[in-house]
Amino acid sequence: MLGAMQARFLIALALGASAACSYFQDTAQEEAIIVRPGNFKKGSGVITAVSVLTNANKDKATPSASGRQPDPNLYRVELQMDVGGFQAVDIDNGTFMAGEAVELTNDGRVVRVTGTSVNRAVR
């Protein structure tokens, strides 16, 4: 059995690691736009895979509000939905990773669910 101090240390370490992995300086990294919305189902799910669609971003010539050149790639995110089923959507943000919990919204956004409360608490 772990002692009380060891258990507290492991809990603090786990909380610190999850906060470190989910903090974003740029709030634009918390969500992405579904580029080809088509027929996607809104709801929550878990990302199972992310693929790069090289040079597929048609809006790559327009600089963003921050002055940075936009990403020339798009990203195909494959999701296992919580209500059942599987779907894939193409997004404009390459910071999403397999294993993250996300929400697909009515207005065509993919929003991180994992650690969003930590991100807001740090601000």
* Shape, principal axes of CA atoms: globular
Mean pLDDT score: 77
How many domain modules? 1
Strand content: 25-35%
Indicate the topology.
Layout: H1 4-21, E1 31-33, E2 43-53, E3 74-81, E4 86-91, E5 101-104, E6 109-112, H2 116-122
Antiparallel strand pairs: 1-6, 2-3, 2-5, 3-4, 5-6
Please tell me about this protein's structure.
It is a single chain. The radius of gyration is 17 Å and the shape is globular. It has 123 residues and is α+β, with helices and mostly antiparallel strands. It has one domain. The model is unreliable at 116-123 (pLDDT under 50). The N and C termini lie far apart (38 Å). The protein contains two helices and six strands, in the order αββββββα. It has helices at residues 4-21, 116-122; strands spanning 31-33, 43-53, 74-81, 86-91, 101-104, 109-112. A six-stranded antiparallel beta sheet has the order 1-6-5-2-3-4, with no helix packed on it. The longest helix is centred in the first third of the chain and has 18 residues, at 4-21.
